[in-house]
Amino acid sequence: MPTDIALHPLGTPVHGNHPPSIVVPKLAGQVALAAAANSAPLVVPPPGAKLHLVSTVKARVDIRPTADVGNLNPATSGMILGANERCVYSLPPGNYTLVTADFV
User: Fold this and answer.
1) Fewest CB within 10 A of the end CB: N or C in the chain?
2) Residue of 29, 35, 27 whose CA lies nearest to 9
3) Can you tell me the distance from the alpha carbon of 5 to that of 28, in angstroms, rounded to the nearest whole number?
4) pTM score, whole prediction
5) Where are the domains of the chain?
6) With b meaning 16 or more CB within 10 Å and e meaning fewer, what string describes 7-31?
7) Contact, 50 vs 8, CB < 8 A?
8) Cα separation, 5 vs 58, whole angstroms
9) pLDDT tens digits along 37-96
């Protein structure tokens, strides 16, 4: 159940926040993150960023500050990724890690 991750900076006042400006490069990304595997740390600079997730199957996702990575538990998370649907989350500045699990 791979999940693709893309972290985009907030858009400019001219371009808006949704979607991010095409000319602004992606901050981070990961392709085909396996279920139950922690993502690479996502570094979100001020003023924040938009996290775009796409999973091949319906899945639960848990996102936590990297310092709190021991408490990642997607099985109890209320954040659901639909199969092949883009989900967008807003993250304040900080370092984050995420993990996914099959939706059951």
Assistant:
1) C
2) 27
3) 8
4) 0.83
5) 3-102
6) bbbbbeeeeebeebeeeeeebbebe
7) yes
8) 15
9) 999 999 999 888 999 999 999 999 999 999 999 999 999 999 999 999 999 999 999 999
